[in-house]
Design brief:
heterodimer; A: mainly alpha; B: Ubiquitin Conjugating Enzyme; four-stranded antiparallel beta sheet; ATP binding (chain B); E2 ubiquitin-conjugating enzyme (chain B); EC 2.3.2.23 (chain B); UBC (chain B)
């Protein structure tokens, strides 16, 4: 099993090696980076980053030369590549394990030595084009979408020979499902119009909507006041213009058709503009965006808080294929947020979509409750009910089974004799426990154990989630630091970019680390898990290492620490990639089975 | 604000048979309401007390109506809250207080256990309608007859 895994690595690497040679003509550029001045390359920011990114393979190439020997050794050991799986012996496998582990460790351990001279391939993940995904996608703002919607309304209006405003109402009624609308409308236009509350077109022109009364002689039904200006639809239900305006304002953001307060006749965009002022009706479209996006599955809201970007995925049909291959359909919005187009969480690699979904559901369900129960309650030693002590002495009586026990040692109370608050009955407790029905205890212990396991990973997950938020805050200040650096140290913008890039690396790596804990919770406990965990530990260490650097606030200090920043983020990026590819391989080969 | 007295006058001056709505003297937005149980319903003979409050945004938002008398009804819960479309998403400013109260009376005449608020009542109503109606009658006699009318829990 392991051998197979191993040999695929070898192959992959050799393939990469070939690819890397293409990049060798850039070697000269690489040397330029050594003296720390990227501007020497003479490119703008973005070109720059892609150039540097493309240099990365070379670095790995160098790192890996030593390892290739090792791989070959392994091949000899295990026989030819693919027969391996069937006739592995246990001993072989263990050696493979070690090598396997070494492999992933080496990726970065070597690079740690080398990367001191080489600089920053970290944009790999941050540059939109480099996100590893086979999806085709495009970002839209809500404004773009409103334009698109109104274009659709115009097109549909041409087909159905209706006003744009009428079409908006029709589409709103049909939840922006234009197929259903066309079907229904072609079938029976009058019935559809009636249902949606559109006036038959002839009447509209004859009816005068806006009226002015002399001496405020109109008594508005809504506010019971005498008013001058009124508005009414062709149904002749007349209200003062102020009440109408308030009525519309209340309903503009619901995304639904607005009707006359009294009957089902609907207000068109022209009516709304006439009552509330020009341009108000655009809000009608804006409020429909949510429905529009929900209706059209190729549009996905970026799940990042307050982002508001809508990503259009053009090859939706590929997502199931990706999922089958345990790949995550990642897309990237224009604000730089990566998210999964299938489950609409943030990029949750290395956890697969199934794992991510289960995990999020689980966390939603009970994490907080369980946490509270575990921290605030103890179980009754007899019936295992969770008991919260909210005051009083330590002589507890279980409400359920009437067991009297000591809160401190959980032993039976009568054994305490006179030594009430001086609990020294540790051994007694053990004896008591034995008397309790054994099976019950084992069951309860198992649940407790599994809770503990869950909580362990949940805590790790949430700690990193919180840290991500804090880091994000800190990294948001990076821009400011960059500006300061430019002013105080006279460093060019491009030279100060290392800070931004390190920040992005840090955030990404933390995210990967976070989700790896979710993944590992659903993994069976095997030998490979140990390896996996050690890789995870390495990543965690690297993350903390870089995170610590961001505590530096003095600009000059930051400049001095530049090399450190670059080293650590390079190291971190490598660790992260090692983690990701390791997970991928383990899942693909089924060596890290998940229990779902 | 200034519109309120006129509206209140309207409510008082246009009474509906079987329904009374009297505003509090110190707060004209707050009404004491009584509704007679409709004939040929389990609530027949009962007089139900309700409270009605007109929020600041009235008439753009619906008035708040709540039963004060205990009642056994699938669309009215223990606290007297009412599940009625015109009080929620089908509210329109053109609806009046009297139409709302009429709707509530109609709800008493036609309970809708398929869209319940009080789940236990609705279940009983669906599984054992006669029993449920008997309970409703009992409750009406116990809580909603003029001699004994007591506020809900």
């Amino acid at each position: 099993m392991k051998g197979l895994l191993k040999s695929t690595f070898t192959k992959k690497k050799k393939k990469q090696d070939n690819k890397y040679f293409d990049a060798s003509d850039r070697m000269d550029m690489l040397t330029m980076t050594e003296d720390g001045g990227w501007k020497d390359l003479g490119h703008g920011g973005h070109n720059e980053s892609s150039k540097i990114t493309s240099l990365e393979p070379q670095i790995e190439n160098q790192n890996e030369e030593s390892k290739i020997d090792k791989d070959e050794e392994l091949d000899v050991e295990g026989g030819s590549d693919f027969e391996f799986e069937s006739d592995v012996e246990f001993g072989d496998e263990e050696i493979d394990d070690e090598l396997f582990e070494e492999e992933y460790r080496n990726v970065s351990d070597n690079s740690e030595q080398v990367f001191v001279q080489q600089e920053s391939p970290i944009l790999k993940v941050d540059d939109g084009t480099k996100v590893k995904t086979s999806l085709l996608f495009k970002s839209h703002t809500t404004k773009d979408l409103v334009k698109q919607m109104s274009q659709q309304c115009r097109n549909l209006g041409d087909i159905l020979q209706l006003d744009e405003g009428d079409v908006i109402n029709l589409l709103q009624y049909y939840s922006w499902n234009s197929d259903r609308l066309i079907e229904a409308y072609v079938d029976n236009p009058q019935a559809v119009k009636k249902k949606v509350g559109l006036a038959s077109s002839t009447k509209v022109c004859q009816h005068k909507n806006k009226k002015t009364y002399k001496n405020n002689s109109f008594e508005c039904f809504l506010c019971c006041e005498n008013r001058k200006y009124t508005y009414s639809l062709s149904c002749k239900h007349e209200y003062c213009i102020d009440c109408y305006k308030r009525y519309i304002d209340d309903r503009l953001n619901t995304g639904k058709v607005i009707t006359c307060p009294e009957c089902d006749l609907s207000l068109t965009t022209q009516d709304i503009d006439a009552i509330s002022g020009e341009g108000e009706s655009i809000k009608l479209l804006e409020s429909s965006i949510k429905e529009y996006v929900e209706r059209h599955i190729m549009y996905k809201w970026c799940p990042s808080p307050d982002c508001g970007i809508i990503v259009e995925v053009s090859n939706l049909a590929d997502i199931p294929h990706l999922l089958e291959k345990n790949e995550i359909p990642i897309v990237l919005c224009d604000h730089g947020h990566q998210f999964c187009a299938s489950c609409l969480y943030e990029n949750h690699s290395p956890a697969t979509c199934a794992v991510a979904k289960k995990w999020v559901d689980k966390c939603k369900d009970d994490s907080e409750t369980i946490k509270w129960i575990l921290t605030n309650t103890q179980q009754c030693p007899k019936c295992r009910t969770s008991i919260e002590k909210n005051g009083g002495c330590n002589h507890m009586t279980c409400k359920k089974c009437r067991q009297e026990f000591c809160w401190i040692c959980l032993g039976e109370w009568y054994r305490h004799g006179t030594s009430f608050y001086n609990c020294s009955r540790y051994e007694e407790k053990d004896k008591n426990v034995k008397q309790v029905g054994k099976k019950k205890k084992i069951d309860a212990d198992e649940t407790r154990e599994s809770l503990k396991r869950y909580l362990h990973y949940y805590n790790l997950f949430s700690v990193h989630e919180v840290s991500t938020k804090l880091d994000a805050k800190r990294c948001a200040q990076v821009e400011e630091h960059v500006r300061l650096l430019q002013e105080t140290s006279g460093i060019s913008w491009i030279e100060a970019q290392f800070l931004v890039e390190s920040a992005n690396t840090l955030l990404n790596a933390r995210r990967v680390l976070k989700w790896s804990y979710a993944l590992i919770y659903y993994c069976n406990i095997t030998r490979y898990l140990d390896i996996y965990e050690s890789i995870q530990d390495d990543l965690a260490t690297a993350v903390e290492g870089l995170s610590k650097l961001f505590e530096i606030e003095d600009p000059e200090e930051i400049v001095r620490a530049k090399l450190d920043f670059l080293n650590k983020s390079r190291f971190l990026a490598d660790r992260q990639n090692a983690m990701l590819s390791c997970t991928k391989d383990l899942i693909e080969t089924g060596t890290l089975p998940t229990k779902l | 604000m200034s519109t309120l007295p006129k509206r209140v006058i309207k409510v008082i001056s246009d009474p509906v048979p079987g329904i009374t709505a009297i505003p509090h003297e110190d707060n004209l937005r707050y009404f004491d309401v009584t509704i007679q149980g409709p004939d040929q319903s389990p609530y027949e003979g009962g007089i139900f007390k309700l409270e009605l409050f007109l929020p600041d945004d009235y008439p753009m938002v619906a008035p708040k109506v709540r039963f004060l008398t205990k009642i056994y009804h699938p669309n009215i819960d223990k606290l007297g809250r009412i599940c009625l479309d015109v009080l929620k998403n089908h509210w329109s400013p053109a609806l009046q207080i009297r139409t709302i109260l009429l709707s509530v009376q109609a709800l008493l005449a036609a309970p809708n256990p398929n869209d319940p608020l009080a789940n236990d009542v609705a279940e009983e109503w669906l599984q054992n309608e006669n029993g449920a109606i008997a309970t409703a009658k009992q409750w009406t006699a116990k809580y909603a007859t003029s001699a004994t009318s007591a506020p809900a829990e």
